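Hey, sorry to bother you again with one of my protein questions. I've been staring at a protein lately and its backbone has me curious. I owe you a coffee for this, so here goes:
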Amino acid sequence: MTRTVAQHSFARFLFRGGSIMNFLSAVESCLTQFAVFSGRATRSEFWWFALFRWLLLMGFLILGAALDEVFETIGWGLSFLLLLPDLAVGARRLHDIDRSGWWLLLQVIPLGFLVLLYWWVQPSKEPGEE
């Protein structure tokens, strides 16, 4: 008997709760809600935006190393400009698993990022779900 993707337990774990966003819609959502710290962000929205930020920075750093240092400066500048949308989507992601956005302050202490990373990979919770 063959199993479809929807029947596979790992797929059910990945797609439980929330909707699935594609790369472009996640980036658009994060950039249009760049200063919105209320609401919820699904795992896919959060991780697609994280990939976008990483690819953008790495692309400009590689161009800076290969061609001209100005590209590296542009990459770091864009990274700085994306800091507010990054914090906003991080707070909304924490709201999606019933945590306060203030938990983002864990990033300033050593190993606090690991706690946030654990929470960010958790499936979405319905409001009021234990």
Q: What stands out?
A: DSSP finds six helices and no strands in the chain. Residues 20-120 form one domain. Residues 5-14 have pLDDT under 50 and may be disordered. Helices lie at 9-14, 23-32, 43-66, 69-81, 83-96, 112-120.
